[in-house]
């Protein structure tokens, strides 16, 4: 088992001009499951491929288990990978596909059989070992790709959107299975996805990437709960975090015509605008007016089964609110909203970055980008 | 960057042999050829060009070649389009029909000439059929009957070389998504309207390639005419063969070859300008 | 509507049959002529059905001067062309398919341009060059010319084939311990093999059919078509018919074997 360290990786594609990864540094601890998540074109796959040795960085270093592998070809890095398209070999049977890495390592026959059988059993492929990939379903091909990756017992496992070609139901099933298998193996894993739900559910930590940089890195729940900037808040979670502009005035936070008490955090922002971020599930709703609650109006009602998703107009702003299914809502109906103060997050309207939790006079406050240790 | 830079030489290494072979066998002969045509024992000369122009066979060869291109190409494209559209209707035994229609792809022009010789020869199958039905025979390939001789060459070439156009058009049609065609028919377009406004415009790139290729190849028509008519119907490339093999004069032969090259290039450039894809430039 | 539809189907069917007759009957006739006895070929009108099939005409043709030699030369040149074209062309096709190198478009354009060069422009000067280098009138000379003619298509066909093998598969092989050559041999080559075989057959067919260059570049080492062409004027009809059939037969086999690849080969790759 080994940790993966990435230092100052820069990669520019000849065609793009823009940097695909821009001075990225991060560390995957030994045995950790780290998810790289971000919209397409954010550089997550490029980063993964540089770790794999399939792309060469313009500058920066990659090391695995303390060994600098930046100049080593992929085959000498001692890692294994699951590809987005699976990349299983159509001209080989499942057995040869799973055992490909073992064949390359010249593993003796009996050990080959034993290890392939074990991997096949783990992925429920035992009955399919003598078939060709063309005779398998999409989900089964995916299992072959995973079995091929785990059979080699590599120190590091890389996965490039392995679930994105499966249909929604299968994806959900296999996600849990994947989590079980990887945690059993305890392999250091670097996993790329554009699906925020996948990132949240799989990762020990997630790194949210944007424009070639890591916007935030941390355990999924803390990244979800305290997005370091508006982009992360908007990207993680469904529906995305709500953002509204408010003005801090005399210890109050004015949103449209209504106002709330402002937390101490905003003491130095008197007289200026801030952006308030709040998650849909943290907003409470009531049909009756109550003191301290904000009046609003329902625009759209979308039942999701487990809850009601309301699109609500508050002054000039639109909010997504999650209400219990018992709540009676019809379009155009007035309602009242309340969000506990500790669920509110505050962002600088110019930089979009989260405001420090304590007053800015405490200059030693950690930058929001650096991660809490895992 | 380290291996990124190393990657370019890998590609260059892979294409280098083909570049060397192509240059050695295309560019070099071209240079040698120009030398052959325009320089004699005493330096640069136009003597070979003049000799070519003065030859009584030269201008008829030019005329015949031009006429062949002008007559053959339109018929051939109409024929190939018809075949491709018929196949698109999914007739019964489409596979078998297609096989027979494309067999000539692999038949050489010489063989095609010999095949049609068996038909058009004085004592060939066409006259035999005419005899069977009681009509008199006809000397199709006689040098006295220039028109039928020419038509025989057109038919043989049509038979041999239409399959190339067909294959290009069929491949092009496969690239035309059925959606467009279906959408057009949902909006009430008739078959001919769909053909004119939907299918043909999308076939334009394929047709353009086919047109350039076929025109250049038609300018090189030679063995078909040779097999059917000998030198009775002179064609440009046939004259090259004549000058080189029979008259043993490579210089004049090269001069004629260069004329063929120049006309080919002109035709290609002309088509490209004429058929410039306006959807791209817009 | 349904009657119109039925009429339409019948018309399509009839048109297909008519075209098939036009394309197929000449092949039947040349086979009929070549497989008739010399005596029945001298009859007029010629019988339209195989009333007395005979191998006399064919065997006379095969035993004429230069035919066996021409046949062997054609075979040698064809196989040599295949070997050379693949050896030189497959790496080029692989490079076009896999690497985004500068000048790739220029390279492809160059290949296409060479297709537009009339063979005759190459052959006569090449004869000069080969005379100077001592290659004139050898099978090697013809082989080289045919390689040059087959090369552009070989590169473009093989490129199309390699594009069909996803690059990720090669990457996967390398992740799991294969060196680049191993990845090519174990993963790409087995999948590309049928396509490469098709490219090989294409090169062979091109060489088998090429007449003019082979005639210009040789005196004694004629290939079969060159032999037939140069003796055309002085030979009896029977000889010409037999020669025609001998040249057509491989085409029938070739197209039957290659049907799957025809569209790729002549259709799309020519763009």
Automatic annotation (TrEMBL), chain A:
Keywords: ATP-binding, Cell membrane, Membrane, Nucleotide-binding, Translocase, Transport
GO biological process, one term: carbohydrate transport
Gene3D superfamilies per UniProt: 2.40.50.100, Nucleic acid-binding proteins, P-loop containing nucleotide triphosphate hydrolases
Organism ancestry: Bacteria, Bacillati, Actinomycetota, Actinomycetes, Micromonosporales
Membrane listed as a keyword: yes
Matching PANTHER family: MALTODEXTRIN IMPORT ATP-BINDING PROTEIN MSMX, TREHALOSE IMPORT ATP-BINDING PROTEIN SUGC
GO molecular function: ABC-type transporter activity; ATP binding; ATP hydrolysis activity
Residue ranges with Low complexity bias: 351-368
Listed SUPFAM superfamilies: MOP-like, P-loop containing nucleoside triphosphate hydrolases
Region described as Disordered: spans on this chain: 349-374
The species this protein was found in: Phytohabitans suffuscus
GO cellular component: ATP-binding cassette (ABC) transporter complex, substrate-binding subunit-containing
Top-level taxon of the source organism: Bacteria
ABC transporter domain mapped to chain residues: 4-236
Protein name per Swiss-Prot or TrEMBL: Sugar ABC transporter ATP-binding protein
From TrEMBL, chain C:
Top-level taxon of the source organism: Bacteria
Gene Ontology cellular component annotations, sorted alphabetically: plasma membrane
Major site of localization recorded for this protein: membrane
UniProt keyword Transmembrane, yes or no: yes
Membrane topology: Multi-pass membrane protein
Segments forming domain ABC transmembrane type-1: 71-258
Keyword Membrane: yes
Signal sequence segment: none
Keywords: Cell membrane, Membrane, Transmembrane, Transmembrane helix, Transport
A single GO BP: transmembrane transport
TM region positions: 12-35, 71-97, 109-131, 143-163, 184-208, 237-257
Classification via InterPro entries: BP-dep_ABC_trans_perm, MetI-like, MetI-like_sf
Subcellular location: Cell membrane
Gene3D superfamilies tied to this protein: MetI-like
Entry-linked Pfam families: BPD_transp_1 (PF00528)
Family: Belongs to the binding-protein-dependent transport system permease family.
Protein name in UniProt: Sugar ABC transporter permease
């Amino acid at each position: 088992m080994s940790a993966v360290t990435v230092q100052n990786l820069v990669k520019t594609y000849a065609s793009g001009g823009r940097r695909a990864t821009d001075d990225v540094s991060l560390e995957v601890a030994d045995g950790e499951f780290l998810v790289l998540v971000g919209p397409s074109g954010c550089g997550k796959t490029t980063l993964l491929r540089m770790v794999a040795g399939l792309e060469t960085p313009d500058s920066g270093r990659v090391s695995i288990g303390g060994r600098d592998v930046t100049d080593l070809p992929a085959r000498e890095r001692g890692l294994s990978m699951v590809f987005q398209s699976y990349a299983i070999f159509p001209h080989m049977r499942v057995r040869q596909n799973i055992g490909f890495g073992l064949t390359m390592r010249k593993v003796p026959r009996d050990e080959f059989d034993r290890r392939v059988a074990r991997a096949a059993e783990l992925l429920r492929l035992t009955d399919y070992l003598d078939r060709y990939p063309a005779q398998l379903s999409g989900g089964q091909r995916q299992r072959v790709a995973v079995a091929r990756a785990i059979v080699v017992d590599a120190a590091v496992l890389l996965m490039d959107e392995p679930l994105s070609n499966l249909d929604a139901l299968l994806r959900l099933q296999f996600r849990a299975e994947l989590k079980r298998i990887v945690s059993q193996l305890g392999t250091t894993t670097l996993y790329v996805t554009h699906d925020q739900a996948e990132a949240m559910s799989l990762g020990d930590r997630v790194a949210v990437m944007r424009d070639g940089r890591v916007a935030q890195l941390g355990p999924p729940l803390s990244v979800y709960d305290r997005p370091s900037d508006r982009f992360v808040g908007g990207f993680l979670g469904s529906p995305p975090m709500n953002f509204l502009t408010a003005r801090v005035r005399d210890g109050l936070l004015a949103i449209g015509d209504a106002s709330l008490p402002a937390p101490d955090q905003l003491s130095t922002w008197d007289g200026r605008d801030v952006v308030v971020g709040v998650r849909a599930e943290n907003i409470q709703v009531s049909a009756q007016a109550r003191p301290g609650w904000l009046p609003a109006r329902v625009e759209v009602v979308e039942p999701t089964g487990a809850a009601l998703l309301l699109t609500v107009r508050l002054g000039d702003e639109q909010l997504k609110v999650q209400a219990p299914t018992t709540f009676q809502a019809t379009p155009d109906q007035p309602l009242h909203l309340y969000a506990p103060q500790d669920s509110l997050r505050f962002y600088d309207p110019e930089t979009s970055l989260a405001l420090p939790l304590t007053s800015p006079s405490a200059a030693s406050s950690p930058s929001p980008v650096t991660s809490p240790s895992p | 960057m380290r291996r990124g830079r190393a990657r370019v030489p890998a590609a260059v290494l892979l294409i280098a042999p083909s570049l060397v072979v192509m240059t050695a066998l295309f560019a070099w002969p071209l240079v040698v050829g120009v030398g052959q045509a325009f320089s004699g024992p005493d330096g640069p000369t136009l003597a070979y060009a003049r000799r070519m122009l003065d030859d009584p066979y030269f201008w008829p060869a030019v005329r015949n070649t031009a006429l062949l291109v002008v007559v053959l190409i339109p018929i051939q494209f109409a024929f190939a389009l018809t075949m491709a559209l018929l196949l698109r209707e999914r007739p019964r035994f489409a596979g078998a029909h297609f096989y027979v229609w494309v067999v000539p792809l692999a038949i050489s022009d010489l063989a095609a000439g010999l095949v049609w010789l068996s038909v058009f020869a004085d004592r060939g199958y066409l006259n035999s059929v005419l005899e069977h039905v009681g009509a008199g025979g006809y000397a199709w390939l006689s040098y006295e009957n220039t028109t039928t001789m020419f038509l025989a060459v057109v038919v043989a070439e049509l038979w041999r070389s239409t399959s190339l156009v067909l294959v290009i058009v069929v491949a092009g049609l496969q690239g035309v998504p059925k959606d467009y065609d279906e959408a057009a028919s949902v909006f009430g377009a008739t078959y001919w309207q769909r053909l004119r406004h939907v299918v043909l415009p999308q076939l334009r790139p394929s047709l353009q390639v086919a047109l350039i290729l076929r025109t250049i190849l038609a300018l090189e028509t030679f063995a078909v005419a040779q097999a059917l008519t000998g030198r009775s119907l002179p064609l440009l490339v046939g004259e090259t063969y004549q000058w080189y093999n029979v008259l043993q004069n490579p210089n004049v032969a090269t001069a004629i070859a260069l004329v063929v090259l120049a006309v080919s290039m002109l035709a290609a450039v002309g088509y490209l300008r004429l058929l410039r894809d306006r959807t791209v430039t817009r | 509507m349904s009657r119109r539809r039925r009429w339409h189907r019948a018309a399509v069917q009839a048109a297909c049959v008519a075209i098939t007759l036009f394309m197929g009957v000449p092949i039947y006739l040349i086979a009929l002529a070549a497989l008739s006895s010399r005596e029945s070929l001298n009859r007029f009108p010629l019988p339209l059905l195989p009333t007395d099939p005979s191998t006399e005409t064919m065997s006379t043709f095969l035993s004429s001067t230069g035919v066996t030699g021409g046949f062997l030369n054609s075979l040698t040149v064809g196989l040599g062309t295949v070997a050379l074209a693949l050896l030189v062309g497959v790496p080029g096709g692989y490079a076009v398919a896999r690497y985004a190198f500068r000048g790739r478009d220029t390279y492809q354009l160059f290949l296409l341009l060479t297709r537009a060069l009339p063979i005759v422009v190459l052959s006569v000067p090449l004869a000069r060059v080969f005379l100077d280098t001592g290659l004139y009138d050898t099978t090697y000379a013809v082989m080289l010319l045919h390689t040059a003619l087959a090369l552009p298509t070989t590169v473009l066909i093989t490129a199309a084939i390699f594009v069909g093998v996803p690059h990720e598969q090669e990457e996967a092989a390398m992740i799991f311990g294969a060196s680049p050559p191993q990845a090519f041999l174990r993963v790409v080559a087995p999948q590309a093999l049928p396509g490469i075989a098709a490219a090989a057959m294409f090169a062979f067919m091109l060489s088998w059919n090429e007449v003019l260059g082979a005639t210009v570049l040789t005196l004694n080492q004629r290939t079969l078509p060159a032999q037939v062409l140069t003796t055309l004027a002085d030979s009896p009809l029977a000889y010409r018919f037999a020669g025609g059939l001998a040249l057509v037969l491989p085409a029938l086999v070739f197209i039957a074997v290659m049907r799957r690849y025809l569209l790729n080969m002549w259709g799309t790759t020519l763009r």
